[in-house]
Design brief:
By secondary structure, the chain is α+β, with helices and mostly antiparallel strands. It contains four helices and four strands. The protein has a four-stranded antiparallel sheet, with helices on one face. It starts with a strand and ends with a helix.
Length: 88
């Protein structure tokens, strides 16, 4: 499958909130997203944090549409265009 970028809200997904606990740092967010993404046999390639803290962008590789859909549902994410090409 081609690589995808998604926008992940930093505080809405129950699974992400459970992993983050009270620690909302970028480092902990990345650790938790890695954990969730790898649980769907996928891999994180890059993070982009726009700076306002409401969401972050994640570039990932999934083996198939089923895994991609499941991890996006777990993270309550939406697919976006490459933020690095659009200055996001």
């Amino acid at each position: 499958m081609p690589l995808s970028w998604i926008r992940v809200p930093r505080g809405t997904s129950p699974r992400l909130r459970a992993c983050l606990g009270d620690e909302n740092s970028d480092q902990n967010f990345e650790r938790c997203v890695h954990e969730i993404v790898t649980s769907h046999q996928s891999r994180v390639l890059k993070f982009h944090h726009p700076g306002h803290g409401r969401f972050s962008h994640v570039r990932f590789d999934a083996p198939d549409d089923v895994s991609k859909g499941a991890l996006m549902a777990d993270l309550e994410a939406e697919e976006i265009e490459d933020p690095e090409q659009h200055g996001a």
